[in-house]
Amino acid sequence: MLWSDPPDEPPEELRQVQAMLRRMGIVLAVAAVVLMVMLVGGA
């Protein structure tokens, strides 16, 4: 890729999907931590 190439911006739909997937990943990570704390705390 040359420095003179125009920047290839992703379309709006793709950016929305990426943002949604990022939020879902954060939610899943938090849920996994909470689940582990509950399992360890209950043992």
TrEMBL record:
InterPro entries: MmpB-like
Entry keyword Transmembrane: yes
Superkingdom to which the source organism belongs: Bacteria
Keywords: Membrane, Transmembrane, Transmembrane helix
Xref: Pfam families: MmpB
Membrane-spanning segments: 20-40
Name of this chain's protein: Uncharacterized protein
Organism: Streptomyces paromomycinus
